[in-house]
Amino acid sequence: MPKIWPTIRLDYINRLIPQLRTSSESEDKPILYTPKSNSKYGDSISTSDSLIYYFYKDYCSYCAELEPLISGLPDQVTLPDGSTSKIRLLCLNKVEDNYEKIITDFYEEHSIPDDQRYVPAIVIGNKYLCLKDAIEDQLMNSIVAGEGLQTEMLEGAQRVSD
Fold this sequence. Notes:
By secondary structure, this protein is α+β, with helices and mostly antiparallel strands. It folds into two domains: 1-31, no CATH class; 50-156, Glutaredoxin. 30% of the residues lie in helices and 17% in strands. The chain has helices at residues 5-16, 61-65, 67-71, 97-109, 132-144, and strands at residues 50-56, 76-78, 84-93, 121-124, 127-130. It has a five-stranded mixed beta sheet with strand order 2-3-1-4-5. The radius of gyration is 18 Å and the shape is globular. The relative contact order is 0.19. The model is unreliable at 1-9 and 19-27 (pLDDT under 50).
């Protein structure tokens, strides 16, 4: 029996999600979305850093639509008290095995309802912003208000003092 499943699957995906159409250089590999992250999981995060977690999937067209907002985040922000805070964006791809467990644990620990466990999603402070509209409406105001200073580290990690 010939192996046609990968070809059929890729054609089907490309019809559903036009942003994943293959490039002319490589007809068998879809173009996947990778957001710009300025921090990696496991990096030391200072108590004065504004921490933002971004949950996404590399084939998610809605995630790709948020790219101008995500890549346009400033490097630092002036907070209401006049101090500055470095913005630390950690992007976690929900389809990667190591991040899938971390994200699932976050959902369980914070009692995120099943109907809100979608991407794109942002965690900033005590807020869980799910889907594009909520992120666009609330992210910048949350950053400026200093809510990123209260974002808990995932997996029990601790922030480091300045």
